[in-house]
Design goal:
The protein is an alpha/beta fold. It has five helices and six strands, in the order ααααβββββαβ. β3 and β4 form a beta hairpin.
């Protein structure tokens, strides 16, 4: 019964039978347990197969993300190099523009001084130059000199103005290109960050799949070891025929009993550990070692006793209290083997 303490009967025939039973479980119960364990192991194997497929897909996605990330990083490096080149070119253009502005200012000042000097010397008027010359050759030479000086001043002024306009346009174009590269770099950095996050998530997912596979593999190994141990134990089981004290039970007969579920830890009156298939009986009605089939429960063996188990009653072991309570007390017709 649930909560009661099992104890060994003192009858010597029973003791002799229990010595044979000690540490053994019914062959059918062992086989059922082994099949259940192997079924769970097979299910875990199927899960691992599915996990392996998912891991392969995740790994391919990770490789793709790595490739995209490498391309994004290479693009960023190229943009930074181009930005540095544009920045250096803009600085050089700015220096040339500054120099051109200074040259223009200097040329304008020089031209102003020359014009002022010509007016002060009275050489600005060509007629005055001719009249003031001692000879025709002197007049032509002085006019030619004035023309060359005037043309040179105008050329210098024109070239300087052109250079300033050119460098100013180049500087504005380079400034625009620099702003455009800054925008491209910002976009590329966001893309890189997004790819890094996606890669980290995929790598974490892949690691979780691998961890589940390792856990399943460990569970599979444990389940298979337990199944092998149960199967090996089942091969060593020898049916026990009680030498006396039985209630006239014959193999192949049936019996209607009151079956109660219980869930206790420890060992039974026969010395074996409690487990699925262990049935507590009244040995005066059902001899210890008798195998039986209980409807709704499965195979069992009479391997325990109890002070409250009297007459046509049996107690069935369940691994949890909830299962024992779900069974409760039922009247069933068992088949004895």
């Amino acid at each position: 019964m649930p909560g009661e303490k099992r104890k060994l009967l003192p009858a010597w025939p029973v003791v002799a039978a229990l010595l044979v039973l000690g540490g053994l479980l019914p062959a059918r119960v062992a086989a059922d347990s082994s099949a259940s364990l192997r079924s769970r192991a097979a299910e875990l194997q199927r899960q691992n197969s599915s996990l392996a497929t998912r891991s392969h897909g995740a790994l391919l996605e990770l490789y793709g993300l790595d490739s995209q990330l490498a391309q994004a990083q290479a693009h960023i490096v190229a943009l930074r190099i181009e930005a540095a080149q544009v920045r250096a070119e803009r600085e050089a253009t700015q220096q040339r523009l500054t120099a051109a502005r200074r040259s223009l200012a200097a040329a304008q000042r020089a031209l102003g001084l020359r014009v002022q000097q010509l007016y002060e010397q009275g050489d600005a008027d060509p007629l005055a130059v001719v009249l003031g010359s001692a000879s025709v050759n002197q007049a032509f030479n002085r006019l030619d000199t004035l023309g060359r000086v005037s043309d040179m001043d105008r050329l210098v002024l024109k070239q300087t103005q052109h250079a300033r306009r050119l460098y100013d346009r180049e500087s504005r174009a380079l400034a625009g290109r620099e702003r455009s590269l800054a925008g491209l770099l910002s976009d590329a950095a966001r893309t890189e960050s997004s790819l890094e996050q996606a890669r980290a998530q995929r790598a974490s997912y892949l690691a979780s799949l691998a961890a589940r596979q390792r856990l399943n593999a460990s569970s599979i190994s444990s389940l298979e070891s337990q199944a092998q141990a149960i199967e090996a134990q089942a091969k060593r089981i020898v049916p026990v025929v009680p030498s006396g004290g039985g209630g006239g039970v014959t193999p192949g007969s049936t019996m209607t009993v009151s079956a109660t579920g219980y869930s206790l830890r420890g060992r039974t009156a026969t010395g074996i550990p409690v487990g699925w298939g262990v049935v507590a009986v009244d040995p005066n009605v059902i001899p210890l070692g008798t195998r039986m089939t209980i409807p709704g429960y499965g195979e069992g063996i009479a391997a325990d006793t109890g002070s409250a188990v009297v007459g046509a009653t049996i107690d069935l072991w369940f691994p949890t209290v909830a299962q024992a309570r779900a069974w409760g007390r039922q009247t069933v017709t068992i088949a004895l083997h």
